[in-house]
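Chain X:
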Amino acid sequence: MRYEDDFFELLRKIKNHENFAFTRFSDGELFIMQNKELNLRKESVVVGDIVYNFGYDEEDHKHFDPVKHQFLKDALLDAYTYKKDNYFVGGICSNCTCASMEHKDWMQEQYGNMDKNYMTTNLLVNSNYEIFMSQMLPEIKKRELVIVCNERATFPDKDLKIKKHFKVGKNCIVNDWHLIEEISNWIADNNIEDYLFLFSASSLSEVLIHQLYKKYDNNTYIDIGTTMNKSLGLSLKRDYLKSYWESGFFSPDIFRKCEY
């Protein structure tokens, strides 16, 4: 399957209530798995020994310290290499200019035997964002939802059928691991089945999806990243979001296609 084919396969599953998991391993997850320091802050971004002169809004701030946070690196590698029916791993790219293209060989080596049914790319953003908004989001709005996202979310989109909001706070990738047990217990205690779980919690999303799908594969778990920030009342500062939502703003991201 190609980029669009994979997207429409996930869309078909949502429409038909066929449960699956979709994880996304973008540049942040890649750098952590490579054991590089990652520090996203207001004034700059640190990746290993390199400092970039741009920053992120407070809700996106995060810090992975290889000395202190090996548990995150190990958990991401476990989530990335996990194999199970309908557990989709988005990450490897061989077509555009995203970070995973440069590290494609390393990512393939880590993943092991390639399963074309379940290895895919970063399906929901960039050139696929328009069809995410026009075709997948309307289907998401038909479902009972559990959302794991920033505590600052205000949920202005009243069409979302949110049954539960699990909140994440500052540097959730290392500070909110209690959610693994908390969400797991909530699913078990309430006999939750056929719900759609949406995750917008940075690298913690991959850890949660992996752990929950291993135990409760009768629900659907999707890492939505920043794709639904408008509906959640969160920042629209990512370039692909600004290209879609802001008149007169252009970024080439809106034309980028990740393909393996």
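Chain Y:
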Amino acid sequence: MRTAIVHYWLLNMRGGEKVVEALCRLLPDADIFTLFYEPAQVSAEIRARVVRTSFLNPLRRYFRSLLPLMPLALESLDLRGYDLVISSESGPAKGVLTSSNTQHICYCHTPMRYLWDLYPAYLYDFTQSRWRRALIANFAAALRLWDYSAAARVDKFIANSQNVQRRIWKAYRREAQVVYPPVDVESCYWRPADDYFLVVSELVGYKRIADAVRCFSANGRQLKIVGQGPEYRTLRRMARSNVEFCGKVPANELRELYARCRALLMPGEEDFGMVAVEAMASGKPVVAFGRGGVLESLPPERESAGVLYSQPDEWSMADALVRFERIEGAIVPTRLQAWATRFSEARFRERMRNVIGLADHVPGSPLLVTRQAEGRRAG
């Protein structure tokens, strides 16, 4: 089979890009297609592949402002001759055009937030410039229609959580199977805690990192924030000296930060919560806003893994931190690490093989049988 992986953009290494890495190991001969590509910002695993970009790539510095042009750019990608296409989607990646003989499977991290769930938040976010909000308002309706029609091009949806499975049904009226994303739990380890809490996140508005900055600036506890994004300057201005911005850090340094923190903070509603799994694989608990995918990434006995709070604001977070400090001594790191193993890459590969029908690439697998039968009918 000729296989292709389509990812919305390859400009950093976050959860979506880690899924692409795992797909590369699952499909060792696959080519990669993407809207924007910055080789220096992604892993060697991705750089080793044939990566084909859209005509928008020279403008990748301005990628956040190019949403209205992305449908045209995606539809210009040449996927002729591929038997299997897997799109990795939280932008518009599923909108690629494939032939009638191509199996198109979409691994969906979430339907586009800025068109669906979070559209009102983007539209009425008065911290954004007036021209950006006007651009969103003018193009959103047309883009939603395109996005809905693009969902019809997908043969099978895979959701990264039950949370996203519900969003896919709400936005596209399509069923989806759930395959939790892969986490490199084997490389994580536990160390005695130093006196700091940790945030690992892209610095964008919907992640609500500002709640953590305001909370910790008020209570004086030590907070380390790992990540980059357009909110950096705003967050930096509001932070006091006990809040440290670490920026982008190497993987080995990030593992050490996980291993030595008191707990991971997750102030926003997550699609799934890979960072929560990374923290638990390091034997560390989680203090999180209790909505969305984190309800699936944490064990059912919530108090064994940390504290959830019900309102997305700094006051609820402050109360959760007080509650966390009461139970902190009862947390058992080995139990958290044991729970995290169910989200390993090996589990991901096994589930993906079953859902896609690869059956280790042997003749007679469901996908190959389907393709062969279609070829006979065409003949």
